[in-house]
Amino acid sequence: MYSVTTWLFIASALALLGSPGPGIAGLLAVGRVEGWGALRFYAGLQLGLAIAFGATGAGLLSLLLAVPFAARVMALASGGYLIYLAYQIATAPVGSTLKIAPARSSLMSGFVLGIANPKAYIAFASLLASQTLVERDHQADVLLKWLLCVIVAIVVDLVWLYVGVRLQRATLRPLTERILNFTLAATILPAAIFTLL
Q1: What residues have CB less than 8 Å from 110, skipping those under 6 apart?
Q2: Residues 6+ away with beta carbon under 8 Å from 122
Q3: What is the largest CA-CA distance in the chain?
Q4: What is the pTM of this model?
Q5: Residues 130-175: pLDDT tens digits?
Q6: CA Rg value for the chain
Q7: Where are the domains of the chain?
Q8: How many of the other CB atoms lie within 10 Å of CB of 149?
Q9: 71-107 CB burial, b ≥16 within 10 A, e <16
Q10: What is the pLDDT of residue 69?
């Protein structure tokens, strides 16, 4: 049904979108704290990623980056949110308090992470520049790449959320939980710093 080029594109998308970054660290952390209640966060993240992919595909990101003030405001907003998220993850409760911690995630927090995630823009821009899937029709090519990336993100992020939910059931010592929280936060901080530079 699909050509070899399409399967290679899907494999590339799996590698880029499935590798750990801010979104995946957020899914692991929220899934670990809230269990399947984190589906709100997951849905918001997918919506934000789909819009980020679409903006990149439509060339809107290039247009925004051409306006220095607008690009700086976007960088400050997304970098600030990523730092806030890293702090929330690093300071999340451990031990017995984890089970009674109030839910903090929402559809909106997932959406903000998805649309502010610099890894999403970089990954989709590189995937756009890769193989041509639809010859002689640039719009159809971009649309197919967008659709495939959205599907890949939905699947791989659901797998990562499942891992987070499974971590909730694991019995970890408080020190191990604290190290896990710091590790997840440390995954987000480089993206935040890169965004602010």
Answers
A1: 26, 40, 41, 42, 43, 44, 45, 46, 47, 48
A2: none
A3: 59
A4: 0.80
A5: 888 888 888 899 999 999 999 999 999 999 999 989 987 777 788 8
A6: 18
A7: 4-196
A8: 28
A9: eeebbeebbebbbebbebbbebbbeeeeeeeeeebeb
A10: 73
